[in-house]
Structure formats: structure tokens, C-alpha cells
Amino acid sequence: MKKLIFLLIIPLMLLITSCDSNDPITQTPEGNIYITSSPAGAAIWIDGLNTSKTTPDTVTGVDQGARSVTLKLQDYRDTTLTISVNEGQTTIVGPVVLVSDIVITLYGPVKIYETSGTSASQPSGLDLSTGLAHGVSSSEANLVDIYYSSDGYLVQSADLYGTLIRETDFFVSSGTNLFDEVDSPLRNTGTWTKNIGDRENNYVFLYDHDGHYSKLKIVNWGGGNPGDPAWVEVQWYYNTALQDNRF
User: I want to staple 200 with a disulfide (CB 3.0 to 4.6 A). Which of 118, 135, 165, 196 is the partner?
Assistant: First the structure.
């Protein structure tokens, strides 16, 4: 009886061994991806996983097929592409142009006039959020953030005029190029004031009554003769995101 059991076990073991030897593990074909971006330095994610590499670089050992590649960079929107990977080949992608996630609007040049000796068609104040000029005594005066004052010929915060209440703070920068992409210092850092002179050559950062940052430059000036009120032209960026100081 014991011999019979032993003989039955041996064929079973041979069967299992035979099955294992005929079922090798199949490796997934792999290729590579070389990717560049503008600007460079974006983190490369593939199929939701961080590769720990940044553009420009090559990611090796990527499974063959359609791969989801996402580029991530601070101050820019995530950019996702579908890339086809072939076995033993390097797929070249780019440069991928990244889109900034900073939401700013450029206004101007807009002309504003001094507060004395002006008509209704010569507004002295500005609504930074819309780019519109309004008279400081008009029905839209409550929208004014800054205005051009005849008293000292200063561009200054609206709350310094009569009954207007909107307060804007000024920070004079060391730069002259409005388009240099330099960010504003935070409102609670550095020296902020209530106005600037009408011949200020550097651009200034503004922090308005609603908590928005702007970046403004006086680009032209004129007038100041009898019957010809003084005026300045200003151009500025307005950041539409609350408390966002990036430009």
C-alpha cells in the first residue's frame, strides 16, 4: 500500500516541474524618452509617477506604448502630453512651451490729469482693476485707487483726496523696465509709501484696497502751462489673483 502512494506522488511532481519550465516570464518591451521644455527645469512625470528628472533629460526604461508625460514647473501650468514609446528607441519630444499660471493684465498707457483746472473730460483718477480713468469728483470716484494731485504734483493713494476711501500703497523699485518679470515685494516687507513724484523714472509696485498687486510706470508727462493742466501717462500690470505678488 505504501509503495502505491509513493508511485502516485512522483508523476505529479514531474508534471508540476514540466509546466514551470514551459512558462517563462515575458519582459515588457522598453524604450526611452528625451524631452526638453521652454523654460527648462520642469519636473518630468510619467504615468503619474515622478521620474526625479528635469528637462532637458532622457528617461530610460519606459514601458512601450502610449505614455502620459506631465511637465511641472513652479509659476507654470502643468502640461500633459501623450507620448508613443517604441522598444529599443528614444522618442524625442520638445521643446514643449510651458504656459505661465500668473494671471496679469497690461493696461495703458492711460493719461490722467492734475486735480486743478481740469474738465470732466480730463479725469485725474485711475481704477487699477479695469484700466479706466475717472474724475475724483465724478459719480465713479468711489472706484478710484490712485490719482494725480496738483498739490506737490504727486501720483498718490485715493484716500488722500477728500472723501475717497480706497487706500493704495506704493513701493519704488530699483528697476526701469516694466516688462522685466520681477515680482513685487510683499506688502509687509520693505518701505511702502502713499505716493510718488510725477517724474519718477523707476517703476513702482502697488498694493490696493482690495489686496491686489500692480506694477506701474510713468511713461510720459506734459502740460502744466496756463489753460493746459499737467498730466502723466502711466502703464501698468494688474495681477487679478488676490494677494499674488508675481509679475
Answer: 196
Q: In what order do the strands lie in the sheet with 125-127?
A: 132-134, 125-127, 146-149, 154-157, 195-197
Other CB atoms within a 10 A radius of the CB of residue 5 amount to: 8
pTM, rounded to two decimals:
0.75
The Cα angle at residue 33 between residues 30 and 38, in degrees rounded to 5: 165
- The owner of cell 485707487 is 145
Question: Is residue 128 a contact partner of residue 214, using CB atoms and an 8 Å limit?
Answer: yes
Length of the chain measured in residues:
247
Range of the domain at 82: 30-97
The mean pLDDT of 153-170, rounded to a whole number, is: 97
CA distance 45 to 59: 10
Average pLDDT over every residue of 100-117: 96
Q: What is the tally of structural domains in the chain? A: 2
Distance, C-alpha 49 to centroid of its chain? 24
Q: Name every residue whose Cβ is closer than 8 Å to that of residue 29 and which is 6 or more positions away in sequence.
A: 63, 64, 87, 88
